[in-house]
Amino acid sequence: MKILVTGVKGQLGYDVVQEGEKRGLEMFGTDVDSMDITDAGQVRKVMEAYKPDGVIHCAAYTAVDAAEEHQEICRKINVNGTRNIAEVCRDMDIPLMYFSTDYVFDGQGENFWKEDDERQPLNVYGQMKYEGELAVQELVQKYFILRISWVFGVNGSNFIKTMLRLGKERGAVGVVSDQMGSPTYTYDLAKLVLDMFQTDKYGVYHVTNDGICSWYEFACEIFKQAGMDVKVTPLTTAEYPAKAARPLNSRMSKDKLVNAGFQMLPSWQDALRRYLERLEDRI
Fold this sequence. Notes:
Blueprint lengths: L1 E5 L4 H12 L3 E5 L9 H11 L3 E4 L6 H4 L3 H22 L3 E6 L22 H16 L3 E6 L2 E2 L6 H12 L1 E5 L3 E2 L2 E2 H12 L5 E4 L2 E2 L2 E2 H12 L4 E5 L19 H5 L5 E3 H15 L1
Parallel strand pairs: 1-2, 1-3, 3-4, 4-5, 5-10, 6-9, 7-13, 11-14
Antiparallel strand pairs: 8-12
Helix pairs in contact: 1-7, 2-4, 4-5, 6-8, 8-10
């Protein structure tokens, strides 16, 4: 199976290509220097030359706060870029996997969000990811949309790396304690992605590591597992200034994933332990 993966230099794209190669699949990783997804002509040229059996679309603009001021760049990448890929997938009649976010929901209440719940994003990034979902659903019949949250991987920046750096530099951090959700380790996600991509169980799914926590609880567990003595102060969202509004409730139901016969990802605490070990190996 020949699979084209966009965003190969990012956290998820990197792990998807690594996992695919381990399985003996033919993986073709692209990034902006080899296929600029905002250039429709280039996307078509590269895809028609490579002739993949499917596309796993990991490339995205993910700077949530910066997106508030750079709405057009975010739209160009997350909506127009996704549309460019989706149009070629439609014409080639091949499956497309697109990654969305918990930020498509408004975060009200404490219930677990279901895949078909109303999408009402609170920020520009969430809105653009939502519009990307719409483009995929409009253009492609064979699509997978995976909503993921609180993503971390070895290749790129993330909350864990930020906490480890700030913990070392300051010995104390303040972290939001009233936003609830689930971390997602790209190494674990990549395995499920390739399991799913080789089926025809198309549709929208929620995928994260198992378990729920707040950012504050996540930070406390990071320092505990890393053996660092860091003072962590819980803050409310109102006390933590950010350009982009964040949903308070990012609990996502994964019943559909399980009912489709896919395996749940391990607990986020277990994923964190393995991630920290992997980070140490790279130092």
